[in-house]
Amino acid sequence: MSDSKSATLYRMVLPDHTCPFGVRAKQLLEQAGFQIEDNVLSSRDEVDAFEDEHGVDTTPQVFIDGERIGGSDDLERYLAQ
After folding, report:
1. Phi/psi of residue 42, each to 5°?
2. Domains of the chain: which residue ranges?
3. Alpha helical stretches, state H, the chain
4. Distance in angstroms (rounded) separating the CA atoms of residues 37 and 7
5. What is the pLDDT of residues 10-49, one digit of tens each?
6. Rounded mean pLDDT of the chain?
7. Is 64 left (phi over 0), alpha (psi -120 to 50) or beta?
8. Quick one: fold of 6-80?
């Protein structure tokens, strides 16, 4: 695992829906002591553009040291290493 303890998180928070997996990913990072650059995607267009740009099907997405870790389940496995 990274010694820098900083992560970049992209998560969906729409006016009518906050993604629970994004909340979970943020909590996992906080509990692990990471400084988080929290990027909130606040419209369906922003979410779709992010997913297209990064070639992913879902949010949240976590990046540590420039490496895409993946979503909250992937993050949990990464942190367990």
Report:
1. -105, 10
2. 6-80
3. 20-31, 44-54, 72-80
4. 6
5. 999 999 999 999 999 999 999 999 999 999 999 999 999 9
6. 94
7. beta
8. Glutaredoxin (3.40.30)
